[in-house]
Amino acid sequence: MTVIHNLSKDTQNFREVVQAVAAIESIVQPQDAWSYQAMIDLFEQDSVHLLIAYESAGLAESAAVVQGYCLYQSVFEQAEILRIGTHPDYQRRGIASQIFAQLHLALRDKQVESLLLEVRADNTPAIALYKQQGFEIIHQRKNYYQLTQKPAVDALIMQLTYSDFK
């Protein structure tokens, strides 16, 4: 059974969980993965939060396997997904949708009006998921992602407006 919760800096195994997230990040975002230290540094900001999906299966949380994550920032009525990912072993099981459901609840409780994210224009599965969640493309940054020995890829800025769902 997958359980999703907001990770607190006060959690006993906080650094271990962030390390597991960084390991997943390096698998699912190999060109521009965020490091463990970058994520730890972000938690110095009170506006940054991390939702964790893990397999409970009756295990203690400290022994739980991290399946996915969503690193997001919420400032007043605006929020932005900074990073989101699901370990390849757990993809296509609805975990990302469960993370989104929990994220939407958390942001509505904070009276957030809109949620932004950025995605590579060639990441078709992610774009499909985001559209399924109600996101719309609001901007395109031409040739934003520059990779050595590869053609540049556009970035799409997508937005979900919560007033549409009241």
Secondary structure elements and pairings:
Layout: E1 2-7, H1 14-28, H2 36-42, E2 48-55, E3 65-75, E4 78-86, H3 95-109, E5 114-120, H4 124-132, E6 136-145, E7 153-161
Parallel strand pairs: 4-5
Antiparallel strand pairs: 1-2, 2-3, 3-4, 5-7, 6-7
Brief write-up:
The protein has 166 residues and is α+β, with helices and mostly antiparallel strands.
Mean pLDDT reading: 88
Report, as a whole number of angstroms, the end-to-end distance: 30 Å
Shape: globular
Counted by DSSP, the helix tally is: 4
Q: Which spans of ≥5 residues are poorly predicted at pLDDT below 50?
A: none
Sheet-strand content, in percent, reads 35-45%
Structural class assignment:
alpha+beta
| Radius of gyration based on Cα positions | 16 Å
Family: Belongs to the acetyltransferase family. RimI subfamily.
Organism: Psychrobacter halodurans
InterPro entries: AcTrfase_RimI/Ard1, Acyl_CoA_acyltransferase, GNAT_dom, YpeA/RimI_acetyltransf
Domain N-acetyltransferase: 12-163
